[in-house]
Amino acid sequence: MLARQVGRNDLAIEYISQALRLKPDYAEAHYNLANALLRQGKLTEAVASYQQTLHLKPDYAGAHNNLASAFRRQGKLTEAVASYQEALRLKPDYAEAHSNLGVALAAQGRLTEAVASYQQALRLKPDYAEAHCNLGLALVDQGKLTEAVASYQQALRLKPDYAEAHINLAHVWFLWGDFERAWPEYEWRWKLRGLSSPSFCQPLWDGSSLQGQTILLFAEQGLGDTLQFIRYAPLVQQHGATVIVQCQGPLLRLLATCAGIDRLVLAGTALPPFDVQAPLLSLPRIFRSTLATIPANIPYLCADPELRAHWQQQLSGVRGFKVGIAWQGNPEHKRDRWRSVPLLAFEPLAGVLGVRLVSLQKGPGREQLPDLANRLGVLDLADRLEDFADTAAVMRSLDLVITVDTAVAHLAGALGIPVWVALSLFPDWRWLLEREDSPWYPSMRLFRQSAWGDWAGVFERLTEALRQQVEATRGMTKAGNDATNQERNY
Question: For residue 326, how many other CB atoms are within 10 A of its CB?
Fold first, then answer.
């Protein structure tokens, strides 16, 4: 496997395929081919090769383990669990399979079983850094954050450059609001698999004066991250810089309304000259942001006046208390299954007298609308929303936004629009713990699960809060009309 050793996975596949043409019943070659395909992300082909391996050699525990990993990456968790268990039946002391089984069980929400699997892996292999890190993740989901920190720290004692453990530790410190320790640790994200570090020759900005210089700020993660951290652009400009921002296409028109930006550049296109650079999510570390010093000069984004007038006219005939909704995040997000909900979860909100739901959902999740739009009375605007500039303008014609943890939440918060966010028991790091408000967005209200997976309870509280809000709005409208009539009578 010299080709693999020198980083030529494509050559390895070619050589193995040649070997199999000469000897089709060579189980080890099928296994090596499957591993190479798995590294390339060719999951369907990898599964077929692992299955061929097992057809030839049914008691191959390593092939069962790796087949399970391919199933897990396909989202086939039931099949993954079964394959890991078969690997362990064949080889009970297989520490890696115990840890991998824990990952699949955790993804199914079977946290107690996942913890038991990790602990068994560690009994067999106490210096298994990856199992310590995986155990930490499961402990976080169980709410045992102190124990999780201990697991991450043990992983780092065994493997000091273990980027995943550093990042997971940062996430716990973020949840606790310990930004002073979290932001420096978060810089380990550039060592994570799948996140390529920037290849700029220009230096990373260190927070010093930028007088007479040009700085590039660039989006590095999802749309919501860009919306959240673009707030730092005016602070950067105050250091004397000309500020260039490289961002995703759907945000280009919207970010033109953000102060502190001299030039916007579409991600993937040629960049103009610049002197220094900084990723958007490194700016809080550079500015040493704490809970008390988060820049919250809201709104820092605005709806274009012409678009706003257009959408006000478009929605002028929609009666009632208008609530924009979004229920599905990016399905590629590794924790999306815990943050997104079915559209049907919003049905109790639709039942509140006087409420009209307006879908702000684009992309994945919209396929649920045809069967439920009439039942829930949802107005679907997605086909008419070109990008987030349109979404921002629509939001300005709504009374409230209710969403799960998606970019829609960040957009509403950045615009200063009232927004309620439904969160899992232990959500993404930026939402902290327990509190119902967000220091990032003053107009935001958080509705958290009280038990793991209890979305029904979240939407019961959302529904009651919405009912009270509608009644209060109706009361204020009536009071205003009465006052107007009294003035006329007078």
Answer: 25
Residue 34 has what pLDDT? 82
Which pTM does this prediction carry? Answer: 0.89
Looking at domain 2-189, its CATH superfamily turns out to be Tetratricopeptide repeat domain (1.25.40.10)
Tokens representing 125 are: 């292999």
Residue 479 has pLDDT above 60, yes or no: no
Residue in this structure with the two tokens 């707030």, named with its chain if needed: 231
Specify the fold of 318-477: Rossmann fold (3.40.50)
Pick from 453, 452, 438: nearest CA to 143: 452
Query: Has residue 35 got a pLDDT over 50?
Result: yes
Q: What is the pLDDT of residue 27?
A: 75
Dig out the tokens for 103 from the structure.
Answer: 């990952």
Residue 438, helix vs strand vs coil: strand
Phi, psi of 181 (to 5 degrees): -90, -30
Q: What is the separation of C-alpha 34 from the centre of its chain, rounded to a whole number of angstroms? A: 30
Which ranges constitute the DSSP H helices of 387-454?
A: 388-395, 407-415
Mean of pLDDT values over 52-71: 94
> What ranges do the domains of the chain cover?
2-189, 214-286, 318-477
Separation CA 94–CA 108 (nearest Å):
22
In 333-481, beta strands by DSSP E: 355-359, 378-380, 400-404, 419-423, 444-448
